[in-house]
Amino acid sequence: MRFSVTRPVLAGVAVGLLLNGCAARSVPRPAGTEIGALPTAQHVLDVLAQRRAAVRSLRAMARLTYTSPEESRKARQLVIVERPDRLRFEILSPFGAVFVLTTADGSLSAWARDEATVYRGAASSANLQRYAQVDLPVATAVDLLLGTPPLRPDPDSVVSADDGAVELWQATGGSVRVAWFSPALEPLRYEQRDADGRVLLRTTFDEYGEHDGVRVATQLGIELPQEARRIAIALNDTEVNPALAATAFALDAPVGSAVVDLDRVPQ
């Protein structure tokens, strides 16, 4: 028997993770700003590292819109994220949570109320894809949700100007990572491309606001252009660096629920 996930699950956890067309979109030009002397690649990476250190975790309510060639759905959910690899998503209804997904310390758990089933397994890209329809490492998903493009500390990175934005380009092992930043070096967009220049993953960061003393993006867009899948995420009631207990990323099986080992179920 092949494992399958119900439509409500797929719609909801397209995880705040991420997903039209392959052509690259122009980067929105930051209003009223001009780039003077270009920063060095190392300076851009240093500022990104500082942002990563400043935004360690986040808790927010999210309005999520998921679109694909097969369907378009909306959901309201609670999102909790903590570096390096902890996630919690709760899809909410007027009658409580209908789906919960957690990852922590290399393990993934998911509960579907309609199925009365808890699924457990490794926090792998394959298992995350079963629910998010996005084949990404959990740590990359955390980086993107916290507004920090997963760039490497690559000394061969190249910086250029692109219509009022700072572009940083990294090419390693036949793949390319490109990120665009505002003149203040706030992330605007991030792409992963293959050796032929096709965009495999695109993420946008918009609507920056100050929350708990830190400016963070509250509008996220994540695309898998090759599959024409997109997730738009609008964050509200955002808390930056809240105190989070380990139990925030734990999922106990409700009484009467079946438990399925994902790592023993054929994909």
Which helices and strands, and how do they pair?
Blueprint: H1 7-12, H2 41-54, E1 57-67, E2 72-82, E3 86-93, E4 96-104, E5 107-112, E6 117-122, H3 125-132, H4 138-145, E7 158-162, E8 165-172, E9 175-181, E10 187-193, E11 199-211, E12 214-224, E13 229-240, E14 258-261
Parallel strand pairs: 6-14
Antiparallel strand pairs: 1-2, 1-13, 2-3, 3-4, 4-5, 5-6, 7-8, 8-9, 9-10, 10-11, 11-12, 12-13
CATH topology: outer membrane lipoprotein receptor (LolB), chain A
Mean pLDDT: 84
Biggest sheet, in brief?
A: 14 strands, mixed
Strand order, biggest sheet?
Answer: 7-8-9-10-11-12-13-1-2-3-4-5-6-14
Query: What is the element string, with H for helices and E for strands?
Result: HHEEEEEEHHEEEEEEEE
| Shape, per Cα inertia axes | globular
Quaternary organization: single chain
Kindly, what is the distance between the CA atoms of the first and last residues, rounded to a whole number of angstroms? 10 Å
Gross CATH architecture: Clam
Binned strand content: 35-45%
Share of helix among residues?
10-25%
Tally of distinct domains:
1
User: Structural class, please?
Assistant: mainly beta
The CATH fourth-level homologous superfamily: Lipoprotein localisation LolA/LolB/LppX
Number of helices: 4
Structure description:
This protein has 267 residues and is mainly β. It has a single domain (7-19, 33-261), classed as Clam (outer membrane lipoprotein receptor (LolB), chain A), CATH 2.50.20. The protein has helices at 7-12, 41-54, 125-132, 138-145, and strands at residues 57-67, 72-82, 86-93, 96-104, 107-112, 117-122, 158-162, 165-172, 175-181, 187-193, 199-211, 214-224, 229-240, 258-261. Strands 7-8-9-10-11-12-13-1-2-3-4-5-6-14 form a 14-stranded mixed β-sheet. It is globular. It starts with 6 loop residues before the first helix and ends in a 6-residue tail after the last strand. 40% of the residues are buried.
